[in-house]
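Morning run. Coffee first, then this:
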Amino acid sequence: MSISTRSYDHGTSATPLIIGTIGDALDKAAERWPDREAVVMRDQAIRLTFAELRREVDRLAAGLIALSLRSGDRIGIWSRIPAISAPWTKTATSRLLGAAGT
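And here it is:
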């Protein structure tokens, strides 16, 4: 999708907005720092590197696509551990939107 078809407000800053999805940002981080920690949840004893986080996000996105979810569908996530579900779900749905061409 070209920038001309997206909503874009630059405002008064000299720094342009970053064009891309959360998934794009994760891909760049995983390529640049694959072994660096991306997620640390001490109370749940979870530590993931950028490469591990990308792998988990891709698994969730593939599962959503396998359920025939598409861009525009509503997704509700029920998780016993909300801190885990938030970054996974947000990034996986970004992947889902990318797969649908949006």
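The helical segments are 22-32, 50-66, 82-99. Good start to the day.
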